[in-house]
Amino acid sequence: GSPHPQPAARPAPQTPSPAPVRALPQPRQGAMLACRLHTHPGAGGATPRVKVELALGSNPAARAHMAELARDPPSYMHPDVEWVPEDDVTKPYTAEAIVTVDGPAGSVYAHLPYRVQLSFFHTYPTMPPVVRFASIIYHPQIEEGGLVEDVFYDALEWSRKPNRHAKHVLSLVHQMLVEPLPGGLPLPRRVLSRIQQLQLRRARTICGYEPLHPPLFAQKPVLTAEWLDADLLAATRSRDEARMRALLTEVSPGVYSFRMATPAFCEAFLEEMAHFEASGLPKARPNSMNRYGVIVNEIGMERLVDVLQQEIICPLAELLYSEVKGCLSLDHHHTFMVEYQEGQDLGLDMHHDDSEVTLNLCLGREFTGAGLRFCGVFGEPTYRKFSYQYKHIPGQAVLHLGRQRHGADDIASGERMNLIVWNKSSSLRAVLPNERPAHGKVPPDEVCLSYTHDNDYEAFKPLPPGVLSRKERIAAAGGA
Q: Which of 90, 97, 214, 442 is deepest in the core (most CB within 10 A)?
């Protein structure tokens, strides 16, 4: 077995993580920036959901060490320690704590705070904690989902007894943000430059944007009935299964709709997106298929969605899907707003998502058409068999497995804007094998075919006007 602690995290995402390197190129002159984060307390100004506890609960050694850190934190660490509620700790860990560290001055990680999760085994301090960045970060030694690579545990030198303390772990976390740790294979300079550019662009955007609605950007957001359905909030916070199920409608096997957001939240969110578009700050397309929209994680709203994931999505997903074991096993997300209207994206070809569980919330506005068609689940024979036609209603959300095939019908009039949360699990991605298609011998329903993803599309129906054949796409991309 590996000498390093293994996360309890399908092996990596679709895009492989970069390998370890020795040094990043220095940022060009003027690349650093001053940043004033938005410290609005959130709607209602209440305290954060996760209570700070330093002495009680399981794994007393870990809690004692973290208490020492909190009493005398290093200059780069915020004094608060957030303990994950024991019922939500991901197995096989016995305690999980989240601390916040500031990016080192003069580095590409300066000006932003980073939440770092330490997951402790019952054998701590004999075994080191598993370290995961719970904030989005671009770094050559941090994988998608935030797990640090093995080079971190090599440098930790945990076999030396003086190093067996959480303060040493945090010190090394800080050091890897100053410069990548020694060891591992070198990366091409162009790859290192790209990583640096992504991190700098993220920092410039977050620091340079002045929000219209600061509570959406709070570092400690608090969800209230001003934003979200009061019955939904009460049910998910209480983890009452009967109350949660009473609010859900299973429109198709594994696909659930429910009332989620208030008109005030939807309108504020749409106003914020329009305000960001007018700012002229750079933005990336939401994913490989949607051309119009905004990645909200990249403009400073990551913490809002973190809390939505913890308080609303995780309790529902744990209740509904056997894959989700432990509420907070959904531990990171890719969140974006998409828009459909004439002259832009009209609809979306059939596909399934790069997520474990997807939340799709309709924000508005007025539109006709633009329904959502659901088919089967990848890995099952019915993957390309039609199951349900869903009609979007502003404020209403639909929840489904990421492996569920779906596609958006063309919009007929107006504009539709939706908030999409791809909920991901670092623990599931480490242990689940890649599933193989099981639908090849089952005749597909034509509405479930994908001209983007299905090699046999043209065997069943002609391509839509203007769409290149698979052979033409490969040729255009320079493939064989």
A: 97
How far from 294 is each of 11, 148, 274, 300, 415, CA to CA, in Å? 28, 27, 10, 12, 15
Confidence class for position 344, pLDDT limits 50, 70, 90 = confident
Distance of CA 99 to the CA centre of its chain: 18
From 222, 189, 228, select the one nearest 40 (Cα to Cα): 222
- Could you give the CA distance from residue 136 to residue 203 in angstroms, rounded to a whole number? 11
pLDDT at 467: 85
Structure tokens at 133: 């960045």
Torsion angle defined by CA atoms of residues 299, 304, 307 and 308, in that order, rounded to the nearest 10 degrees: -100
d(CA 206, CA 219) in angstroms, rounded, equals 12
- Alpha-carbon gap, residue 98 to 142, rounded angstroms: 17
Those residues whose C-beta lies under 8 Å from the C-beta of residue 83, and which sit 6 or more positions away, are 50, 51, 52, 53, 57, 63, 95, 96, 97, 98
What is the rounded distance in angstroms from the CA atom of residue 83 to the CA atom of residue 57? 10
Write a three-state SS string for the chain.
Answer: CCCCCCCCCCCCCCCCCCCCCCCCCCCCCCCCCCCCCCCCCCHHHCCCCCCCCCCCCCCHHHHHHHHHHHHCCCCCECCCCEECCHHHCCCCCCEEEEEEEECCCCCCCCCCEEEEEEEECCCCCCCCCEEEECCCCCCCCECCCCEECHHHHHHHCCCCHHHCCHHHHHHHHHHHHHCCCCCCCCCCHHHHHHHHHHHHHHHHHHHHCCCCCHHHHCCCCCCCCCCECHHHHHHHHHCCHHHHHHCCEEEECCEEEEECECHHHHHHHHHHHHHHHHHCCCCCCCCCCCCCEEEHHHHCCHHHHHHHHHHHHHHHHHHHCCCCCCHHHCCEEEEEEEEEECCCCCCEEEECCCCCEEEEEEEECCEEECCEEEEEECCCHHHHCCCEEECCCCCEEEEEECCEEEEECCEEEEEEEEEEEEEECHHHHHHCCCCCCCCCCCCCCHHHCCCCCCCCHHHHCCCCCCCCCHHHHHHHCCCC
For 143-161, write each residue's pLDDT tens digit: 989 999 999 999 999 999 9
